[in-house]
């Protein structure tokens, strides 16, 4: 390197210079979503979390639709057609506000809309996707059941042919957006294998009671789906998906957003810890001046920005059509696990104040306990990677 070339100054907010990897359009998307979250979520989310509610969710969905954040990486039908990295940056900024807001967007776009976009008929796409992209219609995704989580192939929800109609019976559990959704993508066992169905929320026999008494994702709508002889026409089935490959491909797409989103929660806690360490005084000086506190902050920064770099790498692979499900498992396993550690360490820096909702730390830490489990537990992603590394299937 020429001696005349001067290195840029060190940026504590971007210690690896990762912004250099982003195009102007990427930065514009990131900054737009960050500004929206700062205005529409951050001033209120602690109160929402304390009350265990997400008021005005339909209005928020329409605003997110106006931003182009719903079905963001999908093409056509009113969707933004953004790049994978741009979608990831949006997830990071949304989860830096709250995991519940990112979950709203992720379930809408990467699960419900993605299923219709990839596996639906043209009629289904035309009917649902433009209204879902605008936020006029909220969607949900019914796969997990009360007794069936990591083993979706054992689902009990079933669909039977009755003439040209389908009749669905069963229950789905832990469904984000369920009780505010206008449409549900429900996976059910049929005589021909597992199939996906587009179920309008107003269908007779369909209900979505909200789940209460949660201590995580409290600023999010979580519901049960009950299907009691729900009769659907023949064209309600997603024609392009038979078997578990359909829902699992949707989950892989959504997990990619989590790889980014978890780093948003971690960043929020890290920033809170740095600010607190610089202002909180003990023994006559700021605690940020003590070696043990600086060691914590350094370790947190290393894992945070390694996680963002990993997310960026996976995003570029997705854009190139080279991203494998095992690599998504790699990212989800690492980034959520490290994000939880960052949040817990941040709590120790804040001491007793770390449990107060005046700071974001405990809220993010409890939210991430759900993120760690949903869309693939730690154990499932470990086994995915174990099989990929050894060629030996340890699932059964």
Automatic annotation (TrEMBL):
Cofactor(s) listed in the protein's UniProt record: FAD
Annotated Acyl-CoA dehydrogenase/oxidase N-terminal domain residues: 24-136
Start and end residues of each Acyl-CoA dehydrogenase/oxidase C-terminal domain: 243-389
The name this protein goes by in its record: Acyl-CoA dehydrogenase family protein
Family classification: Belongs to the acyl-CoA dehydrogenase family.
Sequence ranges assigned to domain Acyl-CoA oxidase/dehydrogenase middle in this UniProt record: 140-230
PANTHER family according to UniProt: GLUTARYL-COA DEHYDROGENASE, MITOCHONDRIAL
Keyword line: FAD, Flavoprotein, Oxidoreductase, Transit peptide
InterPro entries hit by this protein: Acyl-CoA_Oxase/DH_mid-dom, Acyl-CoA_Oxase/DH_mid-dom_sf, AcylCo_DH-like_C, AcylCo_DH/oxidase_C, AcylCoA_DH/ox_N, AcylCoA_DH/ox_N_sf, AcylCoA_DH/oxidase_NM_dom_sf, Glutaryl-CoA_DH_mitochondrial
Organism: Streptomyces pimonensis
Pfam families, A to Z: Acyl-CoA_dh_1, Acyl-CoA_dh_M, Acyl-CoA_dh_N
């Amino acid at each position: 390197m020429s001696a005349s070339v001067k290195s840029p100054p060190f940026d504590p907010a971007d210690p690896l210079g990762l912004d250099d990897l982003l195009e102007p359009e990427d930065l514009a998307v990131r900054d737009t979503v960050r500004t929206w979250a700062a205005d529409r979520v951050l001033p209120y989310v602690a109160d929402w979390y304390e009350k265990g509610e997400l008021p005005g969710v339909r209005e928020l969905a329409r605003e997110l639709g106006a931003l182009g954040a719903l079905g963001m990486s999908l093409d056509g039908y009113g969707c933004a057609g953004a790049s994978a990295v741009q979608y990831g940056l949006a997830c990071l900024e949304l989860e830096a506000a709250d995991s519940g807001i990112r979950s709203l967007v992720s379930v809408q776009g990467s699960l419900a809309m993605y299923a219709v976009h990839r596996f639906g008929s043209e009629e289904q796409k035309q009917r649902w996707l433009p209204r879902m992209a605008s936020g006029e219609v909220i969607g949900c995704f019914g796969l997990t059941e009360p007794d069936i989580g990591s083993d979706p192939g054992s689902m009990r929800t079933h669909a039977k042919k009755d003439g040209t109609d389908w009749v669905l019976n069963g229950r789905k559990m832990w469904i984000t957006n369920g009780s505010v959704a206008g449409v549900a993508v429900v996976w059910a066992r049929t005589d021909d294998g597992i199939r996906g169905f587009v179920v309008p929320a107003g269908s007779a026999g369909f209900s979505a009671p909200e789940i209460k008494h949660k201590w995580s994702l409290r600023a999010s709508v979580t519901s049960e789906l009950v299907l009691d002889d729900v009769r659907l026409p023949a064209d309600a089935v997603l024609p392009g998906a038979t078997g578990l490959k359909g829902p699992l491909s949707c989950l892989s797409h959504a997990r990619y957003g989590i790889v980014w989103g978890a780093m948003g929660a971690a960043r929020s806690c890290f920033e809170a810890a740095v600010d607190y360490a610089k202002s909180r005084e003990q023994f006559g000086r700021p605690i940020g001046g003590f070696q043990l506190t600086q060691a914590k902050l350094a370790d947190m920064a290393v894992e945070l920005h390694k996680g963002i770099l990993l997310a960026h790498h996976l995003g570029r692979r997705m854009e190139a059509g080279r991203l494998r499900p095992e690599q998504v498992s790699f990212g989800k396993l690492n980034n959520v696990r490290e994000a939880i550690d960052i949040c817990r360490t941040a709590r120790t820096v804040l001491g007793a104040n770390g449990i107060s909702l005046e700071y974001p730390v405990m809220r993010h830490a409890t939210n991430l306990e759900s993120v760690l489990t949903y869309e693939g537990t730690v154990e499932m992603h470990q086994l995915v990677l174990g099989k990929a590394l050894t060629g030996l299937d340890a699932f059964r």
